[in-house]
Amino acid sequence: MAADLWTALFIAILAAFTGYEVIGRVPVLLHTPLMSGSNFIHGIVLVGGIVALGIATDPLEKAVGFVAVVMGAMNVTGGYVVTERILAMFDRSKRKGGAK
Amino acid sequence: MTIDVLPDTINAVYVVAVIVFILGLKAMSSPETARRGILFAGVAMLIAVLVTFLSPGLSNFAWIALGVAIGGLAGWYWARVVQMTAMPQMVAMFNGMGGGAAAAIAAVELLSSLSNVAIAGLSIAGGVIGSISIAGSVIAFLKLQGWLRSKPIVLPARQVVNTVVLVVGVGFGAFALLRTDTVWLLPFFVVLLLYGILLTLPIGGADMPVVISLFNALTGIAVALDGFALVNGPLGDAGYAMVIAGTLVGAAGSLLTLLMAKAMNRSVANVFFGAFGATEETGGPIQGQMKPIDASDAAVLMAYANQVIIVPGYGMAVAQAQQKVKELADLLESKGVTVKFGIHPVAGRMPGHMNVLLAEAGISYDKLFDRDEINAEFPSTDVVLVLGANDVVNPAAHRKGSPLEGMPILDVEQAKNVIVIKRGQGKGFAGIENDLFYRDNCRMLYGDAQQVVGKLVSELKK
User: Fold this and answer.
1) pLDDT digits (tens, 9 = 90+) for B102-115
2) Minimal Cα–Cα distance from B162 to chain A, Å?
């Protein structure tokens, strides 16, 4: 196995523990925004789509790469807006709660 | 067209992006900082995408820009216009898009590097998981949207059929790998998409929170696998960013899935293979009958109570009744009644679904209580108002042999009075009769949640 893959594996293991620790103690209240937020974060797939399309040579690769970019971009913007909208509601409730 | 930016600069930017991602995710796990968290993550995403676009050696710029514009605008617009109640299916849909993108990237890698065993093997794995994730997520979307029957769709011998389909699909991938022949790739992807559909069809709508969460984690893993495949190729540094972000989501999403399944006292395997709600109930017929109440009597009952606990469910979400509920709670409090909200972890179609809707209506979240916090209070509560919830308050969960057996519920039946607002006499999402409705202390108030709560509000104003 190439050295790059070993490096990536070490990184992945550390990232897995980080993901676990970061979510470890989260209130039920935030489950939905957190699921939506992590849904946004795997939108990083767009970066892979850009690379795949950017180095594609024949028409079929280009077509499939284009699909990857479109879907990845939807994941990013849709995931962001949904999460933002959910969290915006929490903000408003906090202001009203505080005014009482 | 090639713009030269030093690879070191690009890497430095990826490092910053990754740090900001983790800080953002961390901030999202506390209500005070959650909004800052998504903003952080958004900024990190923006710089990661921009810097990738500037990578040296990249071609097809016009196509990339067009794809980002089409997908980005479509996602943005769709997420903007959709109703808050439809958020669960939107998360499912955008998650599916991520899975689809991961599968497509795997396909490109397989088309270009099938002879490299490491890259091809990782891409096959990414393709398997990505395909299952997009197909499953789309089915989940269709079920939640109501465009597909949400009750479990059970095919005969599906366990065997599904396993065969999975094995055949992975087999096609293995053929492609061993014979380095791209002709096997099309059947590979088609059969795995079919598997994703078959896997999700038998799952009832009540289990969708767990399903969406699992597909979310799966997409993360598929993205990480694609990242592994990319680190070996040109522009490999983007791969590291995908490995980190994908694994982060894979781990966090898996944990979230387990937490949700635990809240329903079911294993994840049981959700996927149990065809919940398709089994016949073994308990005997329920004794007694449902007793209706009208809005004015219900209003009086609540106005003279010391404490009212409101238990919302999916019915409140469907009827968009949360604003009226806020009015009701304010009115009751002005009459000196203590009002609390009992939130079951899986009420609605997503964990925290009720919290979000009540927060939208402006109800302070210190009035919202978890199952563990509120259950001890039911015996000393005068009135519990069950608002479009069903399975999560069904005492059948305490009875042996019930399909709900062992599911942690809100013990509302212990309150002095229970008023259930419900559209009709139908069963809950799990398709099981609710013992609660037949209890002596329970009264049924039929109608659309928003209209009925509106009536309660006008009665209380008299």
Assistant:
1) 999 999 999 998 88
2) 27
Q: ipTM of this model?
A: 0.91
Contact at CB, A55 and B236, closer than 8 angstroms: no
Active site residue B330: no
Q: Are B352 and A30 an interchain contact pair (Cβ–Cβ within 8 Å)?
A: yes
How many domains is chain A partitioned into structurally? Answer: 1
Interval B191-245: pLDDT, tens:
999 999 999 988 876 678 889 999 999 999 999 999 999 998 777 888 999 999 9
Q: Is residue A60 part of a domain?
A: yes
Which residue in chain B is spatially nearest to A2 when comparing CA positions?
Answer: B232
Question: Has residue B93 got a pLDDT over 90?
Answer: yes
Q: Are B376 and B369 in contact (CB under 8 A)?
A: no
Range of the domain at A72: 30-92
